[in-house]
Amino acid sequence: MVSFTALTLGLSAISAALAVPAEAPVQKRGDMNFVLGPDHPLALAKRNYTLARRSNTNYVQNYKTGGTVNFSSGTNSFTINWSNPQDFVCGVGWNPGSNLPITHSGSFSVSSGVASLGVYGWTTNPLIEYYVMDWNVGISPGTLKGSFTSDGATYNIYTNTRTNEPSILGTSTFQQYISVRTSGTASGTVTVQNHFSKWASMGLNLGTMNFQVISVESWQGSGSASQSVSNTGGGNTNPPTTTKAGTTPTTTPSNGGGTTGCSAMWGQCGGIGWTGPKCCSAGTCKSSNAYYSQCL
Ligand SMILES: *[C@@H]1O[C@H](CO)[C@@H](O)[C@H](O)[C@H]1NC(C)=O
Ligand SMILES: *[C@@H]1O[C@H](CO)[C@@H](O)[C@H](O)[C@H]1NC(C)=O
Ligand SMILES: *[C@@H]1O[C@H](CO)[C@@H](O)[C@H](O)[C@H]1NC(C)=O
Known about the structure:
The protein has helices spanning 6-17, 41-52, 192-201, and strands at 59-64, 68-74, 77-83, 88-94, 102-124, 128-137, 143-150, 153-165, 172-181, 188-190, 208-230, 268-270, 285-289, 292-295. It folds into two domains: 6-53 and 240-295, no CATH class; 59-230, Sandwich (Jelly Rolls), CATH 2.60.120.180. A hairpin with a 3-residue loop joins strand 5 (102-124) and strand 6. It starts with 5 loop residues before the first helix and ends with a strand. Strands 1, 2, 3, 4, 5, 6, 7, 8, 9, 10 and 11 form an eleven-stranded mixed β-sheet that branches. A three-stranded antiparallel β-sheet has the order 12-14-13, with no helix packed on it. With 296 residues, the chain is mostly beta strands. Mean pLDDT is 79; it is low at 1-22, 24-33 and 235-260. One 2-acetamido-2-deoxy-beta-D-glucopyranose binds at residues 68, 70, 81, 83. InterPro entries: CBD (IPR000254), CBD_sf (IPR035971), ConA-like_dom_sf (IPR013320), GH11/12 (IPR013319), GH11_AS_1 (IPR018208), GH11_dom (IPR033123), Glyco_hydro_11 (IPR001137).
């Protein structure tokens, strides 16, 4: 399922040199993870890991509930057409998602009814369904919370509460965070971090990254789309989230017998998706970015 690119092999080489399994998330490196200074090679390698994660899509979202939906996915691309469908969300992307910029390009044509095209993903703890709709035709997204500029366009931000609706954890009640580009485009780069940061500034916090795709959603009418998808483009990057969906975060070892439950010096103490300690038993918790705060 996962395509191992030359970049990934490059990471393997780095990881092997550091005696770390190539695909192991950083938090599984054990105690070493919590005694890293900012200049420690492993901390630097973690930043390189972010860059190396720019790779082919490794996840296909193929959610259909009825009607005619012809969806065909490839690596980094998909085509779809629909006619009188029930709700569907189909596309390609990554699992787990990240804050890397995502570029998509191609066509999006809605002949009738409603449909959206854009970034779509989920987090857990809290359970959030999020969208950055680059093109919204006729969908009422919820309650308008504000707007901002990103990637040369204005996005309106909405929230919506879904009560007893389908989710990645089964039928649940959860929030949706939805950015909608006011001038629709079928091709563009979404600087995902801009949306995550803006949402966070409004108190709309995400949790642990689950899948993240460029997708098309609709539940009525007809239309078609063909999209190429990548996160190998330009844009600023940040360290990846330090927890992955379905894994239990490593807890911070106590420092010298302390049982405060706080992170030791150099340990992580906060950031979107972080479910570990949010205090420091040594040093002060300082934010590096929305995803990573460290005891320094
Ligand atoms: C990170 O990548 C840079 C640029 O490729 C390289 O010079 C450096 O040695 C790498 N550091 C680690 C710790 O892998
Ligand atoms: C709809 O998709 C199917 C399957 O991908 C394809 O064979 C068909 O030509 C498409 N129809 C239109 C009108 O694009
Ligand atoms: C979807 O595929 C079916 C079977 O190939 C075809 O009959 C139908 O016309 C396609 N739908 C659209 C909207 O092109």
